[in-house]
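Hi everyone,

Forwarding the result from last night's run.
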Amino acid sequence: MKNGRLPKFFRLKQIFNAPSVADAQEAARAALAELPAASFVRPGMKVAVGAGSRGITNYDLIVRTVCEELKRLGASVFVVPAMGSHGGATSSGQLEVLAHYGITAKAMGVPVKSSMATVELARVGQFILYQDRHAAGADAIVLVNRIKPHTDFHGPVESGLMKMAAIGLGKQRGAHQFHQATARVGYAQALLELARGVLKHSRIVFGVGIIENPLHQTARIVAVPAGSFEQQESVLLEEARLLMPRLPFAEADLLMVDEMGKNLSGSGLDPNVIRRETDGSFVRPGPGAVRRIYVRSLHPHSYGNAAGIGLADFIHERLFRAMDAPATWVNVITSLMPANARVPMHFPTDRAALNAALETTGLLEPDKARILWIKNTLSCESALASEAYWEEAHARSDLVIQSAPVRAAFNRRGDLLPVF
């Protein structure tokens, strides 16, 4: 592909509804005071604080604030990783994940206790209720997690406190059991049944839910009693759904993504953004389809876990080289999603990959292709769009055009120069 065959690109910015808190620490304190936390925690209690594996803005600050407020109430506090099989399903790997988000014993001012060992809380229906052994030994458990639409299913509750209770604290055994159940009863029902059982038979007392805006900023922090998780989280989920990032246009011949990763989305690439679905064996474009997807790299904070790589059609070789196959396979086996680990065609340069991608669109004039270029599926505010979108962009009040169309710049090797 010669430069002349690739369309010109212009930079644009989406105008989102993006409420945000001015001070995440104060917002967390206010949420705990409104609950109030003192109704659930008494002096001398051992309290476990569950922290997960997603890249949540202000997460370390919010978790630390929760720990400080619990200590102020006289509790003996420690943090536990609540992330299922992430971190390669190892104790050290999960500590490493938390550390990269700034959640360490030194930063939190409390111990961080990591173990993949679980205890059996009870047997309820088709489920054995597993829970992290450190958390299960506490007098009370507090969860801190983001509430948002899930990447694989839609239901009354999706990603959030209920899921962390059922799967995150269940470690690999709990996560694998959950995903096995989804094959029988579906994601939504399996999550509800398992989470209800865990909440009934464990010492989870409340959770701190975080909602983010489309700019990946903290929009709201809410403290929720465990007995109200299901009811309140369903309301908060709809609030979060309205604040999801999205692509600037409904359809594209090609979507270019600079980076994917588990820290950015549970599926590496958020299907809610790219509009692709997987049933474990096949990948299906959703309505308003993105026809082809090219991904250029794996985020370093994904630690080699490239689960979701199968959602792409083409990848750069650097992504393939960064993939830790065993870590990726553990994740997709646990989630019963083998398609998410299938490796697409990979190319040594951007130029070669783009040439192949455009060849498969069937377009007679590739220079007129509708191409979108984003940093990742968590950061869609700023994007580059090909000239085919120029007229539509001018007619949209929710888009700000920031540059005239120009040719994409390549280095001598044939790789694109950075734009984000």
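The chain has a mean pLDDT of 93.

Cheers,
N.
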